[in-house]
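Interim report, section 4.2 (structural modelling).
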Amino acid sequence: MVSASAVPPLIEVSGLSITRGIRPLFEDLDLQLHAGEIVQVCGPNGCGKTSLLEVLAGLRPPDSGALRLPPLTASIWVGHRHGFAPELPAADNLALWCALHAVPQPDIEGALRFWQVPRARRRALGALSAGQQQRTALATTELKKDARLWLLDEPIAALDTEAVQRLSGRIQAFCARGGAVLLTTHQPIQGLTPRRVELRP
Amino acid sequence: MTGGALAILRREWMLTRHRGANWAQPLVFFAVVVTAFVLGAEPEAPWLAEAAPAVVWVALLLALIVGSERAFRDDARSGFLQQLVRSPAPLPLLMFGKLVAQWLFTALPLVLVAPLAMVALQMQGEAVGALWAALWVGSPALSMVTGLGAALTASLPRAGLLLPLCVLPLSLPIVIFGSGAARAAEHGLSAAGPLYLLASVSLLCICGIPFACAAAAKLQPT
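Predicted structure of the assembly:
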């Protein structure tokens, strides 16, 4: 049997520093994330949690430090801004997301049904509540089956209790299949016992 | 590989249909500029037809600036540009899809109605055909240049002010060659020279500007 430590981590970060303008958000961060693991990044507002996720999502370069990341195609990133067009229905937005991320034969109806997003053809995404829009963004995790890493930035900020339980179940099932999740949240998520990484300015 | 670019074309088409009246904004702007010029000048003035090619090109440029500003700004605000950066498809190809959509849904309707503006501006004979040909050949370059300006200024607070300043130096050669084609025809000369120059500028823009827009998308603050 191969021990967990012998398997290379999905994410390996050493000496990572990020600044905003001239203000350092955090310095010298070391982080490893292995398959099957859930890591919760904690810290006060403005400490750089979102910036860290954006670096790990390949959206911005770090100011210093070494990174070893899986290819972009192996991860799903759900940020504060979802990249959806508010004028278009949820299903059309997800179909475009699948086309951009080369997802073959996506079950968009099934994903929307699972996350209980209204599926009226003519109802624009912008007409849905913030929680329903967040559910639509989380539905991307149902569509890209070959992802090995989920990067979730404040995924439960707009969700009701039932949706949080649903997300908790999906994260547990994903990690049981060998996936890894790195998320930021200020509230604990029921049913999850993540490893906590504290960011300090 | 082209699936992503085609998906963007489809998205832009759907957005054009959903945004309704906003789609016609550049068209109305074009009509207002030309009409104001015609009404402001003496209708029978001999210089009106001579100035007409430049007026049509400037009206096209202004209308394209108005039309392109919102396209990239909304995408930067919604996080769509970030999704493009994370796509496995080549980013310049995705940007090419967006720029082609901008030409199809903003510039092409303007080119199609341009002959009406030429008639209103007292243009006649071969000059009309030469200017229309110049618009067909040169509008891709002008559309791409305004798209680049919009991509560079998408997330800046005073984009409306900066966009024309970015676009102006790059668009001047297109306006000059484009007007030159009509002037040459008007004086009984061949318009082929300016048209070839315009075509080469358009080709250069088609090949290079998607890469510049891709770099601009990666520079967007997160």
